[in-house]
Design brief:
Length: 360
């Protein structure tokens, strides 16, 4: 019979472990917040010519309180209309991709799941290519590419869910369907490029590697609104997503509507991804790497993993864009290339560490 002293010791040990875990999560959270604040200042200050942080603060204060900043019109224009929207769109987009990747990896129980590997980005590329090469778009004008990219991404997601519905939307079947559609859309996009004119090909390639160079406040407002709504809805399902991690049979026995949760959370993450991709192009590795980095630090509890993977994704994309704009200034490298160069070694490091600990 276990005496009360042993029980008290066990409770104390568990309590201390919980406190230590919670402290680590809070430390990681504040570290991300501070790093994002520093990157926001750095990204706004650094460029073809540097701008002091004091002038950045004056320009932002002047904009918020609708009063003269005392800066030259050119400096104020660069801060408010060029650099600040770019860094903010990078943070919001990276945050959305990080959250979407976390959801996909969680509900599909596959560490390779992400908006890129499931074909969502390929569907967006196909939609954008139709508008650029063939001038076939759902709406006329400059918004044609954006709307087509969104529609292409959503079409890919609906095809995955529709084809998988007959197989009870099992994770393995959905992933295989997504990979098949990724190759289908990629091949079709390449075929369209093959017959396109040189200028159209250049425009397609630039869109496919992603860029934050066309950022503006309208895009920030739209992506921020979609991020806020979808992330709240996703977070409300975090405990059910935790149970899904134990397997469909266990989740069903505990009363979790497995199929509905999987499809709803996937649709929310796809809607978020589609909104981001249609504005900034196809940016890979953020949705794949950010959840893994956070999972290594704080574990797999989606209550903490979802928001922290979002912050990590925003930080990764903002850092990548800062490098892309300044590494060989004034020439700008598309940010998607930088995220690939950053993502590959990070992902390989994660794999090596998992194998070293005997994880699958």
């Amino acid at each position: 019979m276990i005496d009360s002293m042993t029980l008290d010791n066990d409770r104390y040990r568990i309590f201390k472990q919980y406190q230590s875990s919670l402290a680590a999560k809070q430390l990681f959270l504040w570290g991300l917040v501070i790093a994002i604040a520093l990157f926001t200042c750095l990204g706004t200050a650094v460029g073809v010519f540097d701008i002091p942080v004091s002038q950045i603060c004056r320009a932002i204060a002047g904009k918020i309180f609708q009063r003269p900043s005392g800066l030259s019109p050119l400096t104020e224009h660069i801060i408010i209309n060029i650099r600040l929207p770019r860094i903010l769109l990078g943070l919001v987009s990276g945050c959305g991709l990080g959250i979407a990747g976390t959801v996909m990896q969680g509900v599909l129980r596959n560490p390779m799941a992400s908006p890129y590997t499931l074909g969502i980005s390929s569907g967006a590329s196909f939609g954008a290519t139709l508008a650029i090469v063939l001038n076939i778009s759902l709406i006329p004008g400059t918004w044609g590419i954006i709307v087509n990219a969104f529609a292409g991404a959503m079409l890919c997601a609906l095809l995955i869910i529709g084809i998988s519905a007959g197989k009870n939307a099992t994770p393995v079947f959905m992933i295989l369907t997504g990979i098949a559609l990724m190759f289908l859309f990629s091949a079709t996009t390449t075929l369209l490029q093959y017959f396109a004119e040189d200028e159209a090909v250049k425009q397609v390639v630039f869109w496919m590697v992603g860029s934050l160079g066309t950022s503006d406040w309208m895009k920030i407002r739209v992506t921020s609104l979609v991020l806020a709504v979808t992330s709240v809805l996703i977070f409300s399902q975090s405990w059910q997503m935790n149970i899904l991690g134990y397997g469909d049979e266990t989740a069903t026995s505990l009363g979790v509507p497995v199929k509905r949760i999987r499809i709803v959370t996937l649709l929310l993450s796809v809607f978020l991804t589609s909104t981001i991709v249609c504005f900034v192009g196809t940016i890979g590795f953020i949705g794949l790497v950010a959840p893994h980095i956070c999972r290594m630090v704080i574990g797999s509890d989606n209550k903490y993993l979802i928001p922290m993977a979002g912050l990590s994704g925003g930080l990764l994309l903002a850092g990548a864009d800062l490098l892309s704009a300044n590494i060989i200034s004034p020439v700008e490298i598309p940010v998607g290339i930088i995220t690939a160069y950053m993502g590959v070694p990070l992902f390989l490091l994660i794999i090596v560490r998992k194998l070293g600990r005997g994880e699958q």
